[in-house]
Design a protein that fits this description.
Blueprint: E1 3-7, H1 33-38, E2 46-49, H2 56-63, E3 67-71, H3 75-86, H4 94-101, H5 110-115, H6 122-135, H7 141-158, H8 169-173, H9 176-181, H10 189-203, E4 212-214, H11 218-221, E5 230-233, H12 244-256, E6 262-264, E7 269-271, H13 281-294, E8 300-306, H14 313-320, E9 325-332, E10 347-354
Parallel strand pairs: 1-9, 2-3, 2-5, 3-4, 5-8
Antiparallel strand pairs: 6-7, 8-10, 9-10
Helix pairs in contact: 3-7, 7-10
The protein binds S-adenosylmethionine.
């Protein structure tokens, strides 16, 4: 019989995650990092952050001395992990900034052509094309990842609500009341980038371990990983905005600079999308079954889940128990943190799975 333990969140702020910059991402575990850490096995040497998103979890375990393997199937998240997990020392300097902002006569026009008057006015869209071309001129891949990561965060600050599933950004930026509440939406993108720079440079640190970062489908990747002590699974919660490509498609387009996609509907989301396996209701159970089957060799799994997701907790426990024993830790949200998955009354679960 699986045991459930109800808990309060440790009294903590993100400053405990050393200096990880504030996140704004659906399903970010920023507020839960310490709770998850306290309920994880002790003495972890290698921690696999399997659906890394913002990397806030992997980063926290990095601060605790672990070697991190990080993976997310979206490229803009891969760059965060490259910049703040795998990268131990490299930051952006003044000469890098000069290069990033200089005029590039070979810059492409993708953002200007597709996204002018969708999320940005022409001059800002043009600025993004120029910046993107200059990123490729940086002579170090960690610098490139850091530049893309900071720019992507700047873009989520520019767009009210922090995602790209709406097309109201330009209208919001002209609405005095909204600008008063959130001045970022009217600032030039360059200013937003520079405002964030120090936070990101300061977050780069070395814990003397060799980390590894991937941009693959976790279910396939996990089979190939050796010597992992703990796999942390935080897949999209089906029922709580699981389609990350619908919300963050622009960031993916910006980093991939797609030449072979269509851009569809009002938000100009790219098509075809990458296949997640954790988006449609019909695919969820088979996807978890396959993930668990492919992860059997890893002695501990930690799985984040919540009470609004499909399938429900009991079905999840049944599926896990085919492979591992399981204890459940439970925390009830007292406030609304944004996103359907973190509303007051929603219970956040952590399944602690072991042999
Ligand atoms: C709930 S979010 C993870 C949030 C993260 N733990 C954090 O605190 O920021 C789920 C992540 O899974 C990624 N994802 C979805 N399907 C995936 C797949 N098949 N393989 C790898 N990553 C996937 C999404 O891009 C998204 O970033």
């Amino acid at each position: 019989m699986a045991v459930t333990t109800k808990q309060k969140l440790p009294n903590t702020t993100t400053s405990n995650a050393i200096k990880f910059p504030r996140t704004q991402y659906l399903g970010s575990k920023e507020k839960l990092v310490q709770w998850i850490f306290e309920n994880s096995p002790k003495g972890i040497e290698t921690f696999f952050d399997a659906f890394s998103g913002t990397s806030v979890l992997g980063y926290y375990f990095k601060t605790k001395g672990a070697r991190i393997i990080s993976n997310d199937f979206l490229k803009f998240n891969y760059h965060i992990a490259k910049a703040l997990i795998e990268n131990n020392t490299v930051i952006l300097t003044d000469s890098d900034l000069a290069l990033l902002f200089e005029k590039n006569n070979n810059a492409g026009t993708l953002i200007e052509e597709v996204f002018t008057d969708v999320f940005f006015e022409r001059e800002q869209a043009n600025f993004l094309d120029n910046f993107r071309a200059n990123v490729s001129l940086l002579d170090n891949t960690y610098k490139q990842s850091l530049a893309l990561t900071i720019m992507n965060r700047a873009l989520t600050r520019k767009i009210l609500l922090g995602h790209f599933a709406h097309t109201s950004a330009i209208r919001y930026s002209k609405d005095a009341a909204r600008v008063k509440r959130n001045p970022s939406i009217a600032k030039p993108i360059k200013t937003l980038f520079l405002d964030l720079l120090a936070d990101y440079n300061n977050a780069v640190f070395d814990n003397k371990k060799n980390h590894a970062v991937f941009c693959e489908d976790t279910t396939t990747l996990v089979k190939t990983l050796e010597n992992v002590d703990v796999a942390y699974f935080d897949p999209p919660y089906c029922g709580c905005h699981p389609d990350y490509q619908a919300f963050y498609h622009f960031l993916e387009t910006f980093v991939e600079y797609w030449q072979d996609k269509q851009f569809r509907h009002g938000t100009k989301a790219y098509f075809p999308k990458k296949d997640s396996g954790f988006t449609q209701k019909a695919e969820i159970k088979p996807s978890f079954e396959k993930l668990f089957e492919n992860s059997q060799h890893i002695p501990h799994w930690l799985i984040s889940y919540n009470s609004k997701s499909y399938p429900n907790k009991d079905v999840m426990i049944e599926m896990i128990e085919k492979h591992k024993k399981v204890k459940t830790f439970e925390y009830e949200y007292q406030n609304h943190y944004g996103g359907k998955g973190s509303r007051k009354g929603t219970k956040e679960y952590l399944f602690y799975c072991y042999d």
